[in-house]
Amino acid sequence: MPPRASQPAGSNGKPVKKAKASTKSKATTVKLDAAPSNSQRINPLTAFANTPPSSGKNGIPKASQQSQKSKGKEKEIFKSLVTDAEDDRLWVDIYEPTTEAELAVHVKKVQDVRRWLDEALVGGPSGKLRKYRRILALTGPAGTAKTATMRVLARELDCEILEWRNAMGESSSNPFEDDCRPDGSSYHQSYDSDQESLFSKFEAFLTRASTCQTIFADTERDTRLSSSQSSSSTHPTTRKQQIILLEDLPNILHANTQSRFHAALQGLVTSPSLNPVPIVVIVSDAGVRGEASDERLASGSWGKDRDGVLDIRTVLSKDLLHGPYVTQIGFNPIAPTLMKKALQALVSTHFSSSRAKGSAPSKEILDIIIETSNGDIRSAIMALQFSCVVEMPGSKARKMSSGSSTKQVLEAVTRREQSLHLFHLIGRVLYNKRKGDPPNPSATAKDIQRDKDLDATLKDPPKLPSYLSSHARRRSRVNVDLLYADSPIDSSLFSLYIHQNYSQFCNEVEECEGVADWLSWVDSSGGESWYQANPHRFHLLTMGTLHSLPTPVPRRSQKLFKPEFFDYLTKEKDAWDAVRDVRGWIIEDATSKEKEGWRLGGWSRAEVVTGLGGVLKARDVKQMQPQAPMSHRLFSSLTFVSGGESRGLRQLSEGDLPSDNVDLPGDDGCPRGGWSDIPDEQEGGGWLESDDIEDF
Amino acid sequence: MSLWVDKFRPRALDDLHYHEGLSARLKSLAASGDFPHMLFYGPSGAGKKTRITCTLRQLFGPGVEKLKIDQRVFLSPSKRKIEVNIVQSNFHLEITPSEAGNYDRVVIQELLKEIAQTQQVDLNAKQRFKGAAIHSPLERFCECIVDWTVVIINEADSLSRDAQAALRRTMEKYMSNMRIILCANSTSRLIAPIKSRCLLMRVAAPSDDEMQTVLTYVARRAYFDLPPEAAQEIIKDSGGNLRKAILVLEALKMQSPDLSGPLTIAKPDWETYCQKVAVLIVTEQTPARVMEIRTKFYELLSHCIPPTVILKTIAEAVVSQVDETLKAEIMHWAAFYEVRMRIGSKKIYHLEAWVVKVMSLYKQSFYQFDISEFS
């Protein structure tokens, strides 16, 4: 859809419009007043820096007013404006939800957000929660209506959203902007502000956005309080509450900026403010791909810079994230039923209006769109619009039986880089489905059909000679390359998941043997140094596992668990601390007293662990003085519990993101270069800072 | 707090109870006032460190026992801080580079270069040394000629290859003002160039009789009599590890002060645990059992028991319970997976792979046996 020349630039769909808004910001200094809607985007820098001219709306050039209007999300206003002109904006913008009912988000999520906002703005039922409702972090995959929910709720709660945008286009090198400024005085001001770095602007935005509001609201509150208690109920605040929305963040991946950003937020949150402005941070999940860490290893970069991924942990500092001021609400991909409802509503509104051209898309197309969108409603609406604009190959000519070709086209259009859910990834490997497997009893007809289609595309492998017959398998339905491309985790974590779960899927020890050997081989393959790690580990492990597992895998309601590995690592770390304590206790004065034996090299850690158990136990029993540090039990006392009940196994569920549970403590980065008796790459020698092992 | 092991440790070469030949050699070496780089190797608990200490004392006199502990911070290439404890006297300095994990190369390089390039100019130290009562002419002799520092590197066999390569160069270059004493369990993990640059000193494990002598000596020093049966019991349990034997003796003495009657030697928990895991392996061979054993392994590992030790202990326990024909196989695979474990990063995989292998071997042999009996 190329923009028509006659159309004002502002109505060319969202992105362009935004850019325009920010470049034009100097001309539109009075947005606060002029805005028809309360959820508009403003440039607070200029908005606050320049006092609005008294002329108000009249001061605005006509064109910009038009663009102002078109920014509003209220359909009614919009429709009345543009009904006659053909609207070539995206449907995503036109039909942005305006009420809670229109949101395709699960009701509970919306409630969560609403409650938070309520608590943040008013303080909840007790009125005391306000202090702790400073930052709300909305996370979730792209296109799950995070921003839309925020806007709708802001509208319903009648508050104003102050949004930060990284205005890259706003530079002093734009003479036209300067020319059309109404007064010359603010020219310098803005010129100065252009000299600041982008981040300083951001800081200024944060402080201004929070403090300016504070002043007004405070005075208001004071008057209210001083007048009488009853008046507050009868006469609610005339000025709107405000919310700071941070979606377009400064470049957090730059370490320096990140620390400044953290500091800014921290400062804002801890500052004692009577009437704080809640901050909403929206972060879309960006999945880590399977190869990420492998490639990093191959390219030889040091250690684990997970900073490469923008997630909630990089956006908010650890203290903040675990502190009382931050609430995190995760959005899930939009459920097909909800999406269907939303899309249907959209289609019916669209085609009932006079603007509609062509015919409504068929139900099949709608279904395909929903299926291919993977819960991303933005991409679904895009696809829907596309399907109405473009003549689908099968939409009219061959009404039925065209499912697959339509699907292909749509898939090509809507398919976005998406990662498989961890749960599905592990399941796909461990269930080891092969061509011709009997369908699952719970499978729907559609699933069965899909399996059949898939089987039809798979060729049978050539027959193996008799001496290799033990390796004969039917063709696997798993496409390893695709799996690798879609994997949300790197191969090391993947191997941990396989390791934790494979044994349930085996019937006999012989099958376990295959998987275990592959795990072992893959872990040690390559060279002795970490940078020689095998780049094909993911493939090898997947194929090895598929080859070794029985086929078909018996269904006995296996449960997938998260790896215990990380619990063990934390425990081990504590135990090593205990070892150090005991070691210190032993050699405490050995070096100072000369007649006590000087023991060369002290006690090595391995010696303490393996040798001292008996003595320590005996001392404990007899309560000998001086007493050994009690922590020694962490490594010296081991009681054998028969039965395989392992405590604290956490089940992996469908919604789990890989980032929820674990971060690899860099074990990929540092397998031992040589030989060691002690597994000390994870702990001990004081060279591993605690923050390397992030919260599991 | 001193354990008996530390308290009653021989301090001079003359006090050592066994390996007289070695002691004589070391003494004559010390008498010459100079020595080459040395590598002490032998099983743990054989007395390597004791012998190194005695040699140093012979060489430098009691001044070598005035120690201070320094904590040094090194920077890795990725600007990570590595803290290493260094014990040093005026004459020597000892480090355990394996404390630095992967970055042992940095530590070795930085530290040795620094020592080597600093000549012994600490006149003060010499003054102090002079002021102290000097007993033997030998000590006076040493004081005049010794202008090098001894560096003792503990756990040299856990040095990475990088570190060993770095060491090799340093050994050649700074021979004039530094002597290196390496202490290792086995020479097999050291690269050949290092071995060839060192005078090799093998410290073998003591024989049973020698251990008996030492235990009796320790008992006498601790003012009690050790019944020979108890000593035999302890020796049998310790498997040539004198340190372990003395620790057990101390524990036993604490538990039952009279040391008479039947003794139950208190093994460390992890050993009993490993025995039980071995039983688990032999009694059932199913995927469920694999999972159960995995939790046990995690438990052992989280108690910091070195995985190599786990593998070795369990393998020995399993071998003692299986048929003769399987023993070689099981040990073969233990060795096989031990190598992988050293190279790989996640020890649990290799431990488990070995267990599963043993299980399937055992199961197969068991079924074959059954069938043959049946027919």
Automatic annotation (TrEMBL), chain A:
<dbReference type="GO" id="GO:0005634">
    <property type="term" value="C:nucleus"/>
</dbReference>
<dbReference type="InterPro" id="IPR003593">
    <property type="entry name" value="AAA+_ATPase"/>
</dbReference>
<feature type="region of interest" description="Disordered">
    <location>
        <begin position="220"/>
        <end position="239"/>
    </location>
</feature>
<dbReference type="InterPro" id="IPR057927">
    <property type="entry name" value="RAD24-like_helical"/>
</dbReference>
<dbReference type="GO" id="GO:0000077">
    <property type="term" value="P:DNA damage checkpoint signaling"/>
</dbReference>
<comment type="similarity">
    <text>Belongs to the rad17/RAD24 family.</text>
</comment>
<dbReference type="GO" id="GO:0003682">
    <property type="term" value="F:chromatin binding"/>
</dbReference>
<keyword id="KW-0131">Cell cycle</keyword>
<dbReference type="InterPro" id="IPR004582">
    <property type="entry name" value="Checkpoint_prot_Rad17_Rad24"/>
</dbReference>
<feature type="compositionally biased region" description="Basic and acidic residues">
    <location>
        <begin position="447"/>
        <end position="462"/>
    </location>
</feature>
<dbReference type="GO" id="GO:0003689">
    <property type="term" value="F:DNA clamp loader activity"/>
</dbReference>
<dbReference type="GO" id="GO:0006281">
    <property type="term" value="P:DNA repair"/>
</dbReference>
<protein>
    <submittedName>
        <fullName>Rad17-domain-containing protein</fullName>
    </submittedName>
</protein>
<keyword id="KW-0067">ATP-binding</keyword>
<keyword id="KW-0227">DNA damage</keyword>
<feature type="domain" description="AAA+ ATPase">
    <location>
        <begin position="132"/>
        <end position="376"/>
    </location>
</feature>
<feature type="compositionally biased region" description="Polar residues">
    <location>
        <begin position="36"/>
        <end position="57"/>
    </location>
</feature>
<feature type="compositionally biased region" description="Acidic residues">
    <location>
        <begin position="678"/>
        <end position="696"/>
    </location>
</feature>
<feature type="region of interest" description="Disordered">
    <location>
        <begin position="649"/>
        <end position="696"/>
    </location>
</feature>
<keyword id="KW-0539">Nucleus</keyword>
<dbReference type="Pfam" id="PF03215">
    <property type="entry name" value="Rad17"/>
</dbReference>
<dbReference type="GO" id="GO:0005524">
    <property type="term" value="F:ATP binding"/>
</dbReference>
From TrEMBL, chain B:
<protein>
    <recommendedName>
        <fullName>Replication factor C subunit 5</fullName>
    </recommendedName>
</protein>
<keyword id="KW-0235">DNA replication</keyword>
<dbReference type="GO" id="GO:0005663">
    <property type="term" value="C:DNA replication factor C complex"/>
</dbReference>
<dbReference type="GO" id="GO:0031390">
    <property type="term" value="C:Ctf18 RFC-like complex"/>
</dbReference>
<dbReference type="GO" id="GO:0003689">
    <property type="term" value="F:DNA clamp loader activity"/>
</dbReference>
<keyword id="KW-0539">Nucleus</keyword>
<dbReference type="InterPro" id="IPR050238">
    <property type="entry name" value="DNA_Rep/Repair_Clamp_Loader"/>
</dbReference>
<dbReference type="Pfam" id="PF22534">
    <property type="entry name" value="RFC_C"/>
</dbReference>
<dbReference type="InterPro" id="IPR008921">
    <property type="entry name" value="DNA_pol3_clamp-load_cplx_C"/>
</dbReference>
<dbReference type="GO" id="GO:0031391">
    <property type="term" value="C:Elg1 RFC-like complex"/>
</dbReference>
<dbReference type="GO" id="GO:0031389">
    <property type="term" value="C:Rad17 RFC-like complex"/>
</dbReference>
<dbReference type="Pfam" id="PF13177">
    <property type="entry name" value="DNA_pol3_delta2"/>
</dbReference>
<dbReference type="GO" id="GO:0006281">
    <property type="term" value="P:DNA repair"/>
</dbReference>
<dbReference type="GO" id="GO:0003677">
    <property type="term" value="F:DNA binding"/>
</dbReference>
<dbReference type="Pfam" id="PF21960">
    <property type="entry name" value="RCF1-5-like_lid"/>
</dbReference>
<dbReference type="InterPro" id="IPR027417">
    <property type="entry name" value="P-loop_NTPase"/>
</dbReference>
<comment type="similarity">
    <text>Belongs to the activator 1 small subunits family.</text>
</comment>
<dbReference type="GO" id="GO:0006271">
    <property type="term" value="P:DNA strand elongation involved in DNA replication"/>
</dbReference>
